[in-house]
Specification:
single chain, alpha+beta, Jelly Rolls, Arc Repressor Mutant, subunit A, 2 domains, 5-stranded antiparallel β-sheet, 8 strands, about 40% helix, disordered N terminus
């Protein structure tokens, strides 16, 4: 009978692509600032709530909730609070086989398919005494990093396209890249013109293609992403409801509250108070 190998055994089966050296969930105040420094291993820095200004090799990246940055070994970096006290995950790890160079040194959004893993990772880091916690932390971390690698590989590419005569498979590819575009920019005041410009097509054609492929409008998709992010922040952060509304791109708190109630079935405050256990939540 063939002997089963452990998942981390590199002789065959499932070799370990990522090895965690350290990982922690931390919360800091408004004066948070770490001076310019380097690390010997790869670093993943992900903001859960608040905002951080990350200087990396002279470039400044503003990290908002649900965004992260991968920093290669030896690169200079310096994080500091950017107006709102942050909660974040920071990890040092060895990369054995993942193609991370192409996605390093840039701000990346944790896409909606990876948000459950991010929530679970924060929860696990807050409760390290649980059975097999270290194994689960590695699994969740690996899922997020590899997921980001895959999402970026299939992400938005600026190119001229024509919507007339496009076969269904090609339309689906464009719609998928529009999805990724919206996920990475939902915290900003993105509009149809900006989305269309990213693909070199007219706003009208962009809206029609997306509606035909997804069955919903661009605005409806953007709203769904923002509501999902609001639910995440309400449960995972101590930010005020008004701060959350502005964080995810709403100008009006009352508009955000009405929209949240209509989509979720409860007000933001009730959703937070119940721990997300509400009808429609």
């Amino acid at each position: 009978m063939k002997k089963k190998l452990p998942l981390s055994d590199t002789r065959g089966g499932y070799p370990q692509s990522l090895t965690l050296q350290s990982i922690a969930y931390k919360e800091q105040g408004l004066k948070y600032h770490v001076g310019l420094h380097t690390q010997k291993e790869w670093q993943w820095y992900c903001v859960v709530y608040g905002s951080v200004s990350m200087t990396h090799n002279g470039n400044v990246h503003r990290l908002t909730p649900g965004t992260s940055i991968l920093i290669p070994p030896g690169d200079e970096r310096s994080p500091q609070c950017a107006g709102k006290a942050p909660g974040y995950i920071v990890a040092q790890f060895i990369n054995r086989s993942c193609a991370l160079e192409s996605i390093s040194g840039t701000r990346s959004a944790i896409t909606s398919d990876l948000l459950p893993e991010l929530h679970a990772l924060v929860d696990e880091l807050k409760n390290p005494s649980r059975v097999n916690s270290s194994e689960l932390v590695l699994a969740l971390f690996s899922r997020i990093i590899i997921g980001q690698e895959r999402n970026t590989a299939g992400g938005v590419v600026r190119q001229k396209v024509k919507t007339s005569g496009i076969n269904p498979k090609r339309k689906e590819d464009i719609a998928a890249r529009i999805d990724h575009f919206l996920e990475t920019r939902m915290h900003t005041k993105v509009d149809r013109n900006e989305i269309a410009a990213a693909f070199g097509i007219s706003p009208t054609h962009c809206a029609r293609l997306y509606r035909e492929t997804r069955g919903i409008t661009l605005h409806e998709r953007l709203t769904a992403l923002r509501i999902a992010e609001a639910k995440h922040l309400l449960l995972m952060s101590t930010q005020s409801i008004s701060d959350i509304a502005f964080e995810i791109g709403f100008d009006s708190i009352s508009h955000f509250t009405r929209l949240f109630r209509a989509e979720v079935g409860a007000s933001p405050s009730d959703y937070r108070r119940s721990g997300g256990h509400v009808y429609g939540g």
